[in-house]
Amino acid sequence: MKLSPLVAAILVSVSSTSYAFDLQQPANNSTDNLVWTGHLSPDTDTVVSAMLAAHIYGGTATVPEKINPESEFVLNYCNAEAPRIESNYADFQVGLVDFNQVTQLAPTIDQGSIVAVIDHHAIGGSPINTPQLVAMDIRGWGSAATILADNAEKLDVTLPKHLACAGLGAILSDTVVFQSSTTTDYDHHYAEKLAAIAGISDIEDFGQQMLIAKSDLSHLSADTILTMDYKNFEYGGKKVGIGVAETLTAQQLIDRKEDLLAAMKAHKQANELDHLFFSITDTKDKKANLLWVDNNDFTVIKAAFNTDVEGDMLTLEGVTSRKRQIGPAIQSAIESL
Ligand SMILES: [Mn+2]
Which segment of the chain is annotated as a signal peptide (predicted)? Predict the structure, then answer.
């Protein structure tokens, strides 16, 4: 059957506009003005995932804010350059890596410009809300970098040494050197593959050096420590901030508790948060030391961890993951109060 010109024109226009960003066949995508970015308060997985995505799919890697000392260590170790800091995302097509919450989105990103999300977090809370179809690849793996390593392999994209090394650093960071309960077999599998490409024979040693590099926080202000690895959430209509400091030398921070509490109080007020929590996460002895600001927060802590609390800090043995342990407990407590 021969199509009338009108029908043919409609079909052409439909087929040329109906595809979302194509994560399976990158050649189908226009990468003009495409940038990749992760969440605010970027961590190593967010930084490196943007770099991996730009290498695999085209476009430019960016970060929405300055990178943290751990990421600096990893990029330095890998001889890789940090992505540029983008202060204005208007006029770009944007691919998101390592998050899906609007509370963690750079404020200049128009949600209508988001074309893809590659992530490993729950969609609960306040996910992005887009008028158009967005390509999504969300898997319950230990890091977004692991998902991107898998995509690179399936798409036959070779990773250069420095990116393989940085990818390995991102997996080690998010899984706390495979100690976190979020670690999957995929993370081990791709960590080994990336290490082989990067020529790194001792993965554990790289991981330990990274943990040591991020542990010394003595030169940083309490406010910097609070917001360095920090995420905003919306749980049950409440604005909730959760900051984390992962450190091998937790006592160093516990000794600065009064300082941290003062910084938390100021941060909670300035950002008009309903709740604010901070965990001094002891990566050596695998426990979280939780701090909160006021009685409202304390009520949530008691409900979340179902425990009698004495003093102004709650130590939770075996708890190291905001994503898997601290966040979900706080979310369900707030939603049930
Ligand atoms: Mn991540």
Answer: 1-20
| Separation of CA 276 and ligand 1 centre (Å) | 21
In CATH, the number for domain 222-336 is 3.10.310.20
For 271-307, write each residue's pLDDT tens digit. Answer: 999 999 999 999 999 999 999 999 999 999 999 998 8
Q: How far does the centroid of ligand 1 lie from the alpha carbon of residue 175, in Å?
A: 9
Taking only the tens place, the pLDDT of each residue in 102-144 is 999 999 999 999 999 999 999 989 999 999 999 999 999 999 9
> How many angstroms does the Cα of residue 152 sit away from the middle of ligand 1?
17
Right CATH for 20-211 from 3.40.630.30, 3.90.1150.100, 3.10.350.10, 3.90.1640.10: 3.90.1640.10
Q: How far is the CA of 16 from the centre of ligand 1 (A)?
A: 33
Sign of CA dihedral 8, 10, 11, 16: positive
The span from the first CA to the last CA of the chain, in angstroms, equals: 64
- What distance in angstroms lies between residue 293's CA and the mean position of ligand 1's atoms? 27
Determine the Cα–Cα distance for residues 122 and 99; give it in Å rounded to an integer.
9
pLDDT tens, residue by residue, 32-62: 999 999 999 999 999 999 999 999 999 999 9
- pTM score: 0.90
Nearest to 150 by CA among 318, 62, 24, 302: 24
Expressed in angstroms and rounded, the spacing between residue 125 Cα and the centre of ligand 1 is: 17
Q: Where are the domains of the chain?
A: 20-211, 222-336
Ligand 1 centroid to residue 85 C-alpha, Å: 19
- Which residues make Cβ contacts (< 8 Å) with residue 205, sequence separation at least 6? none
